[in-house]
């Protein structure tokens, strides 16, 4: 095992940063901060970390603010139009200055990129379009030097049809040991697929090959499902975990963590009235939330805990499992299973005080009951950005891109208010890249550039997720907005009106979305009441208002009502998402108070 981190001391962190800075030249086309500036920012960050050192380092994840990087769209160091590892490295000072605790990097493995990298052909390398293993090692070391942890994506339900094991299975033929690692089955009577299971991206979940057998793919046809009843698959992923843990990563985000185990009897799912098979994750679904999945997670937790004696502490897992109600999700974060899980109920919740309170209560009660922290998520690479969702009629907020009208100014106000709500709630929080800039969904991408497999699998009726994956605008007045070197355009086109939303423009504006996030994260780190803990709802809050107190001495007030409200006369306003008018908090705004 080789540790490339410097968690032990402040001096060690400075030594590690100097090594990282002087051994790596600034990336061409992406402006990197000077060594002196980076060191000063590190000093400020370490001072803040020292102020809040009451919790053991092993529990950092319970309160962490994690920033999601979608590599293709974050920053392009070599100017080829695609984001890469060195682009992330060059922007580490930006992330440190923002004030996050960890980065989650979406898949960076070799892949044909038929599903944005979630079709993995090699779990132990870096996609050449993104860089090399040496680049990844440097990123891990440089992030750790800045006090930033690194989580990477693990895709255990399926691989790419370019994976060597699947290619060997196709070549080996019926009944071969190679095919046992996947779900190959013969036709049902009449030449039908083995089951009626639907694929997440449209169409059936089985694909027939030349010899007549079918293979299972719960997602795209290019993503065959692993057979987690096979010992080779179990051993292979044990090895993959240790490979990356030994390189110094701090943990994994587990893609579709509820899907690996299948009912081996392969029963059909119920049909809707229209005759189509259900996609609902009902209790007993044969390919989601099967009891055997917990055995896999318990095995992985034991591997992560093997690293408890290292300077970084034990490695961690966060589950992606779109499960409701929260009682089901809580089963994934029981002791000796996964550390935390994304809470998608808030992401799917309307901008409504009653509904939000119910979701917050239900989430915290069920997760606290098993000793797990809550995590809060507003957007990610699979969902319409929340600025756009909050600007819609909330009865249609979850519709796909380009389906319903959007008031982006209303969405901006609500997105700012929601950010302060998210960061005030007990537990951890996730920020999707660009949310700190207030980026909206790009709903008018030309059809010829759409890349999401949903577009093809739906027969060009569902535009898919590309609108939230448009590359980040960093600087300048026109595309590519500093995304890469020169004037080369990125893999997805950026809107012509994004100049006011660049990181450069917002950094210079004290009232910008970015400035709000920086201020909130600075206060969150300084206030003892924030992070993990409990909340108490304030009984005197008027209708349409969420108001809760966190000890010691912190109150969050969110006005979801139609008009302005009074704030407590004796409270000090730490931060508000919108300016107060005569001491009143306007509609669709949040205030943080010292009480």
Automatic annotation (TrEMBL):
Domain Glycosyl hydrolase family 13 catalytic stretches: 68-469
InterPro entries: GH, GH13_cat_dom, O16G_dom_2
Gene Ontology biological process: oligosaccharide catabolic process
GO-annotated molecular function: alpha-amylase activity
Signal peptide residues on this chain, from the entry's feature table: none
Protein family membership: Belongs to the glycosyl hydrolase 13 family.
Entry protein name: Alpha-glucosidase
Phylogenetic classification of the source organism: Bacteria, Bacillati, Actinomycetota, Actinomycetes, Propionibacteriales
């Amino acid at each position: 095992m080789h540790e490339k981190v410097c968690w032990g001391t402040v001096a060690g962190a400075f030594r590690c940063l100097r090594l990282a800075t002087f051994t790596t030249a600034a990336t061409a086309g992406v402006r990197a901060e000077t060594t002196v500036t980076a060191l000063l920012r590190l000093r400020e960050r370490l001072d803040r970390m020292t102020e809040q050192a009451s919790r053991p380092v092993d529990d950092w994840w319970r309160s962490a603010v994690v920033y999601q990087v979608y590599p293709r769209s974050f920053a392009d160091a070599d100017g080829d139009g695609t984001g890469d590892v060195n682009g992330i490295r060059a922007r580490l000072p930006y992330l440190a200055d923002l004030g996050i605790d960890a980065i989650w990097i979406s898949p960076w493995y070799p892949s044909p990129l038929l599903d944005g990298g979630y079709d993995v052909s090699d779990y132990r390398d870096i996609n050449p379009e993104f860089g090399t293993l040496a680049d990844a090692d440097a990123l891990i070391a440089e992030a750790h030097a800045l006090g930033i942890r690194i989580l990477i994506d693990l895709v255990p339900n399926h691989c790419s049809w370019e994976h060597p094991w699947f290619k060997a299975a196709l070549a080996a033929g019926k009944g071969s040991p190679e095919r046992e690692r996947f779900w190959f089955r013969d036709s049902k009577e009449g030449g039908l697929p083995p089951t009626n299971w639907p694929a997440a991206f449209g169409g059936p979940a089985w694909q027939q090959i030349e010899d007549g057998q079918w293979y299972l793919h719960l997602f795209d046809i290019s993503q065959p499902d692993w057979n987690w009843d096979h010992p080779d698959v179990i051993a292979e992923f044990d090895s993959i975990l240790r490979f990356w843990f030994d390189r110094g990563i701090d943990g994994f985000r587990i893609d579709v963590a509820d899907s690996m185990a299948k009912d081996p009897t392969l029963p059909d799912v119920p049909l809707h009235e229209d005759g189509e098979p259900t996609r609902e994750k009902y209790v007993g679904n044969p390919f989601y939330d099967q009891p055997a999945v917990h055995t896999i997670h318990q095995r992985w937790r034991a591997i992560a805990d093997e690293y408890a004696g290292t300077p970084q502490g034990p490695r961690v897992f966060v589950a992606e499992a779109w499960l409701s109600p929260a009682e089901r999700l809580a089963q994934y974060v029981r002791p000796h299973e996964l550390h935390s899980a994304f809470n998608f109920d808030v992401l799917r919740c309307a901008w409504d005080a009653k509904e939000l309170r119910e979701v917050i209560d239900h989430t915290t009660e069920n997760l606290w009951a098993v000793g797990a922290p809550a995590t809060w998520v507003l957007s990610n690479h699979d969902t319409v950005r929340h600025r756009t969702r909050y600007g819609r009629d909330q009865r249609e907020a979850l519709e796909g891109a380009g389906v319903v009208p959007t008031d982006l100014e209303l969405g901006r106000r609500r997105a700012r208010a929601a950010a302060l709500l998210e960061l005030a709630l007990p537990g951890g929080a996730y920020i999707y890249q660009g949310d700190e800039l207030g980026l909206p969904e790009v709903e008018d991408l030309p059809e010829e550039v759409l890349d999401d497999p949903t577009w093809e699998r739906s027969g060009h009726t569902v535009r898919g997720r590309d609108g939230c994956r448009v590359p980040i605008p960093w600087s300048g007045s026109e595309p590519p907005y500093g995304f890469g070197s020169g004037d080369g355009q990125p893999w997805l086109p950026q809107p012509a009106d994004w100049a006011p939303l660049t990181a450069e423009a917002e950094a210079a504006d004290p009232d910008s979305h970015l400035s709000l996030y920086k201020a909130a994260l600075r206060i969150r780190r300084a206030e003892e009441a924030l992070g993990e803990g409990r909340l108490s709802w304030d009984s005197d809050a008027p209708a349409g208002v969420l108001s809760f107190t966190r000890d010691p001495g912190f109150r969050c007030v969110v006005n979801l009502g139609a008009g302005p409200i009074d704030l407590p006369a004796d409270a000090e306003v730490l931060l508000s998402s919108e300016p107060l008018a005569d001491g009143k908090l306007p509609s669709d705004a949040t205030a943080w108070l010292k009480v």
